[in-house]
Design brief:
16 helices; alpha/beta; 15% strand; Rossmann fold; globular
Length: 341
């Protein structure tokens, strides 16, 4: 195997960012991965370029640089002029122009500004969904108005021609059927179902962080007779079994730029209920979307009272279109070696 021609750079090597880089490294030839651990995201966004500029090996064989938008690509290529000549591909898992904060005044201007700068120096800018791309591009102008004077102009027009949508490649497990996210809405809906004497079983899956909302502990007591699983399942096979055993999967997300977990659940046979907002209308037909908490409650009540019909339903989402086997050729083309020298 020859010297690496594709340089993979990940400033936040964890979660979906790590999974994508690992997938590319395992399936595409001639890759070199340079990364920093997924800790203290805010500091990675501010300072990763300097650290990586000192750790990325020098090589005359590189032709393509692929990185996520956590990295300030502008700073990296300024610090490492040898990388400036490469075909530079920037991948957006999420964007900081519309990432939710409690108050807009709390939004750190630097994070979004870094992403705009990175787009300007990139040769190709790739988003995991149309929602992600359009929400970013359409917000650039208003975002830049925060600058008190000498505001840059026409940035959307400069960046848009470089942009394309390429779905995040989900590595779906081989399963057979035996299934900032607003937990308050989800758990309050479950409590209302319980109060209405609706028969259901509940799994609440996910990582536990330091600051656990109070609603979790109170809801766990109120819903105790329904609970099958609660919290993080460290073994992937246990997580997949929980998905395969479930009939319905619910998202109450306040933000979502793609939604791997929902697609994994559908792949495992779950009937999805998602907000009629964010990325979901791009992926899920209207029959799986709800607009209000009242609609969600009504839909869940109906599904719980007709479990056999729910289980027989074939979800009208082709998960294979989001799989690595389907998307591999497009990623290979994106990272092709026909790069400017």
């Amino acid at each position: 195997m020859g010297a690496p021609r594709v340089l993979l750079v990940e400033a936040f090597y964890g979660g979906s960012h790590k999974q994508l880089m690992d997938l590319l490294q395992e399936n595409l030839s001639s890759c070199c991965l340079c990364s920093l651990p997924a800790k203290k995201w805010h500091w990675r966004a501010r300072t990763a370029a300097l650290s990586l500029s000192q750790s990325i090996p020098t090589s005359g064989s590189y032709r393509v640089l692929f990185c996520s938008s956590v990295l300030n690509l502008c700073e990296l290529v300024a610090l490492r002029p040898d990388l400036a000549r490469l075909k530079k591909v920037l991948y957006f898992h999420e964007n900081q122009l519309v990432y939710p904060v409690r108050k807009d005044q709390q939004r750190d201007f630097q994070y979004g500004y870094n992403q705009v700068l990175s787009c300007l120096v990139a040769d190709a800018v790739v988003f995991n969904s149309s929602f992600n791309m359009e929400s970013f591009l359409s917000s650039i102008s208003s975002f830049m108005k925060k600058i008190p004077d000498h505001r840059p102009k026409d940035l959307e027009q400069l960046i848009r021609p470089k942009c394309e949508v390429l779905f995040y490649p989900v590595h779906f497990p081989d399963v057979s059927r035996e299934h900032d996210k607003d937990p308050e809405l989800f758990l309050s809906t479950m409590i209302k179902l319980s109060e209405r004497q609706v028969d259901f079983q509940l799994s609440v899956l996910g990582e536990t962080f330091t600051d656990v909302p109070e609603v979790f502990s109170s809801a766990r007591l109120l819903l105790s007779r329904h609970i099958v699983s609660w919290g993080f399942l460290p073994r992937k096979q246990d997580y997949l079994k929980a998905l395969c055993d479930a009939d319905v999967v619910v998202s109450t997300a306040r933000h979502e730029f793609f939604g791997v977990a929902m697609l994994e659940a559908v792949h495992c046979g779950c009937y999805p209920l998602c907000p009629k907002a964010l990325v979901y209308p791009e992926i899920f037909p209207a029959e799986y979307l709800y607009s209000t908490p009242e609609q969600l409650l009504k839909r869940l009540q109906s599904l719980c009272r007709r479990p056999d019909a729910t289980r027989r339903h074939a979800v009208k989402v082709d998960t294979s279109s989001f799989s690595w086997s389907t998307l591999k050729d497009r990623y290979q083309t994106l990272l092709s070696l026909d790069a400017p020298l």
